[in-house]
Structures are given as C-alpha cells and as structure tokens.
Amino acid sequence: MNHIKLRTIFQLLVILAAPAIACTKTEPGGYTSGSGLDTDADITGYIADIQPSAPKDTLVRILVEMRVVTTEGTREDKYVITVEAGTPIFRQVGKNHKEASFDDFEIQQLVHVWFDGPVAESYPMQARAQQVVIDTESGNR
Questions:
Q1: Which of 2, 93, 97, 139 has the most crowded CB, counting CB atoms within 10 A?
Q2: Does 38-135 carry CATH code 2.60.40?
Q3: Strand-strand pairing, 59-70 and 73-84
C-alpha cells in the first residue's frame, strides 16, 4: 500500500515539474532562457571598485555606481554586489552573450546586474547577484 502511494506521489511530482523544466532552453546567444537575461536588469551602472576574496575564485564584490535622475535632481546610487562562484557572468558581444568570469571585471566597465534576494538598504546598498552581464558594446565610462 505504501509503495503505491509513494509511486503516485512521485508521478504527480514529475507531472508538475515537467512544465518548469520545459520552459528553460539554451538560446543561441549562449544563455539559458528563463535565467533572467530575457528580463530587464535590476541595476545598470559602472564598476567603481573590485574586491576579490581570499581564497581566490570563491567570490568577488564589485562596487557599482549609477546615476538616477528624478524630478528633484540627480543622485548617485552605489551598490556593493556580491558575485559568488557559480554566479552566471556573461560578456555581451553584439546581440550574443558569451560566458565570462571574475577575471573579466574591470574598473569603469558598464554592467547589468540581476539581484538574487533582498537588497540591504544601507549605504552603499548591498545585494547578491543572480547574474551579471558585462556590456562591451557601450564601452567604459
């Protein structure tokens, strides 16, 4: 009896998970559809500082600065973004996105960042990256 219940539960889980698995596919640009690159980035700004971790290649923190124009004037927002090992990093080449790494980050580069989880409302604000795209088309600041 328990074997039949477990089998039925497993079959239901497979049926429910199938649409989610089917919705992700690799695009010609080298990224996975549904990964966030098909949505607008949470922030777009320039790298002002890079803080690698020890041991190397486990994570890096980048300070991203962006100008925000409002009806009350212009202000500069700053974000410390934690990019962990395994976080997708891409380099935009034309309309395609090619895989990149921590070593590709440079001061003054334009980056698009998608957040993973909440943003700490400190100054500078702090967030974890879901993914980062280095914008080589727009150049550096």
A1: 97
A2: no
A3: antiparallel
